[in-house]
Write the structure tokens for this entry.
Amino acid sequence: MPEEAESLGTVVVAVVTNLGIAAAKAVGGVVSGSSAMLSEAAHSVADTVTEVMLLVSLKRGARPADEAHPLGYGPERYIWALLASVATFVGGAVFAVYDGIHTLVHGEDPGDPMVSYVILAVAFLLEGYSLLVAWRQMRGEAARLAAPLGLYVKHTPDTAVKAVLLENVAALIGLALAAGGLLGAQLTGSGVYDGVASLLIGLLLVWVAWELGRSNAQYLIGRSLPAAMRAEVREELLTVPHIEAVLELTTLVQGPAEVLIAAKIDFHDLASARQVEAACEDAEDQLRERFPAIRRVYLDPTPTTPPPPRTSPPAAPAPPPPGRAG
């Protein structure tokens, strides 16, 4: 599917970018003795591990349905993406907060920051490119669904691309914080600025991990389409001949391009069985044409009012008792 291939390309770009940046930041942190630079190196390592897990999620979630998993493997991508958010927290946030506290308590001797400045500038350009790739994909997906970009980013089921987007935004902010910490240490000779920058980077990663974890948990629990799209699905069903009312509508997002629709439908009382079957087929075709992400449609014919209860025929009167023999 084009969306899967696009997501895969976005994550691959992020992996390659962060792997190189992590090594460069580590060298800069060792040379300059900067706590913030080492925190940024941990940040990039955590991002790399996260994105490798996202690659696994894309591959495993794209497997076709089989007899053991008749609804497919789409939700598995959210399990791996949830683990990726945990890796961001443990690998990046915890280290950055610890290193910042250690620097504030014990102090540090600022080294030569010039190498770090160069590395931060190059990293800013690379992270900016990776962010641009993810942003273009998000904008394209939102345009295909005719959804506002901000709303789509908040509710998108494509959590792999959302992870790349948020991590790159956090990375650019983290680079600015690291540069500020280096500059403050260089101008004052105090490591306090560097320690504070490291703490802020750690708190930034805590927020990213929380946001990604929350997003993936919602889809693991089971999330419906947004209210506006549910209304459109209901509206589309009511345009199908012989459908009188949609009594109950259930939607379930199983992946970025996998939505399940189940509904209780009141068909016209005079519709024949053949017409009901044709209406079900037409409804599925119309929904898939309007919403390409819809994969499965289950319609349950249900009358508006239950049929009257069956009444048993009146019991035959009991025969009279036999008379006495006289």
User: Anything to note?
Assistant: Strands lie at 243-255, 258-267, 294-301. The CA atoms of residues 124 and 172 lie 6 Å apart. Residues 2-32 form the longest helix (31 residues).
